[in-house]
Design brief:
The chain has 8 helices and 22 strands. The protein is α+β, with helices and mostly antiparallel strands.
Length: about 425
């Protein structure tokens, strides 16, 4: 069945997709995708010359089929900010290009209600030998915008991109971030009902990214629809009404962003645990002389149950079981906890805590326990436990990222930690 791309009147979502708050009981579908498949043919050894084709006539036929999308079905509602997440190679960009009409699905249908504006590989088509002004005029012509209108909007485009000082500079002298900012500023001038965004906000500082999201909020207020493909899970929870998780080209979860992100992280944890059980992945991040061995480590909730997902504000304990292969005097037990940006959010050990650990003989075991209240911000984390000698310079065993876990909260704060606090507002200047 070939792809169908038509305007929609109305479509009802299956119950499992859910509906974001604020939409009517029967919202209109801006995009309806039904049973979409996309397969690529990957040649094993492609002949590049006529001689090779004659000598090896069957060589070009040998190929592997890659199913980038497999029976994908879902709806996106009008006015919705819809996120799509997944690992590299999961089919996110392929799906977005199918929505943009760049790829034709092999099977299934895609129906879209309104004009589509893709924010995919911004700046493609810009001429590096031309200035920003000339490129904007050319880009506007491709979008069907008259030259006079493009020149009229040019100051606004340059101002939004924050490139006023580089107007007369050729684009070949722009950084990649400057080019993306210019491309984004030009793209938002197009009038459309559906906007497709593929990780374009990854370039630029936090302030510019926030400006981009302000644009999307404005689009949403105007009833526009945004489909946002990203690796940034925090922005999905912060801005999206719903989200979809793709795994190996299939829909693994769809619904409320917090639920979908939690599913994604849980799958990551399960895969990491599977790799560890098969004796892979962590060996490269381990060192020490082997006098002691960290056999296992885990987190427990207040009831003593092992957990990989910790609720913000609860009291938990990390425990590590250590076995000694040789005598060791006053070993130091410690751990480093890092967030997904690799920031050290907790660094501690028994020396800092003033704990005398004593002496251990070969064959003995110890359990290092660290209990604390979870004040980390919502996100993914890793824990690296270690056993060191009493000089704190030599290690018996260090297990880099031995534990992976996530922290769940009711809100996204954007900080490293989310400290309990109390705030108030009073009229006037307050107490003198």
């Amino acid at each position: 069945m070939s792809e169908t791309r038509t305007a929609l009147a109305r479509s009802d979502a299956p119950a499992e997709q859910g509906r974001p708050p604020g939409l009517p009981a029967e919202p209109e579908a801006a995009i309806a995708i039904a049973g979409v498949w996309k397969t690529f043919r990957l040649p094993h050894d492609r002949p590049y010359t006529l001689k090779q084709r004659i000598i090896h006539p069957r060589q070009s036929r040998a190929a592997t089929k890659l199913h980038a999308l497999k029976d994908v079905s879902f709806d996106v509602w009008t006015g919705e900010f819809f996120g799509i997440i997944g690992r590299n190679g999961s089919g996110k960009s392929t799906l977005l290009k199918c929505l943009a009409g760049i790829y034709e699905p092999d099977r299934g249908s895609i129906e879209e209600a309104g004009r589509v504006s893709p924010f995919i590989e911004l700046g493609v088509g810009f001429n590096p030998e031309l200035t920003a002004r000339d490129n904007i005029v050319v880009n506007a012509a491709l979008l069907g915008m008259p030259r006079s209108e493009a020149l009229e909007r040019f100051p606004e485009i340059i101002s939004f991109a924050e490139l006023e000082q580089f107007v007369d500079l050729k684009l070949k002298n722009y950084s990649s971030g400057m080019q993306v900012r210019l491309g984004f500023s030009a793209a938002i001038q197009s009038e459309a009902e559906i906007y497709l965004v593929d990780e374009v906000l990854a370039v630029g500082d936090a302030r510019f990214q926030e400006k981009c999201f302000d644009v999307f909020r404005s689009m949403k207020r105007e009833g526009k629809t945004v489909v946002y493909v990203t690796h940034d899970l925090a922005t999905v929870e912060r801005f999206c009404d719903r989200a979809l998780l793709l795994e190996r080209g299939e829909v693994a979860a769809i619904g409320e962003p917090r639920y979908v992100v939690r599913t994604y992280r849980q799958h990551d944890i399960e895969e990491a645990r599977g790799k560890n059980e098969r004796g892979r992945a962590m060996d490269a991040g381990r060192w020490g002389d082997g006098t002691a061995e960290i056999v296992e480590a885990w987190f427990e909730d207040s009831e003593g149950n092992r957990q990989d997902v910790l609720a913000q504000g609860e009291r938990v304990c990390m425990r590590a079981r250590i076995r000694f292969a040789a005598p060791m005097e006053s070993p130091i037990f410690g751990v480093i906890v890092r967030n997904e940006r690799a920031d050290d959010v907790l660094v501690t050990n028994t020396m800092y805590d003033g704990i005398e650990t004593g002496s251990f003989q070969a064959g003995e075991e110890a359990c290092y326990t660290l209990c604390f209240e979870v004040l980390f911000a919502d996100g993914a984390y890793s824990a690296s436990p270690a056993v060191a000698y009493q000089d704190a310079q030599r290690f018996a065993d260090w297990r880099e990222d031995l534990l992976t876990f996530s922290v769940r909260s009711d809100r996204y704060s954007g900080g490293v930690v989310d400290l309990p606090h109390r705030a108030s507002v009073e009229r006037g200047g307050g107490a003198g």
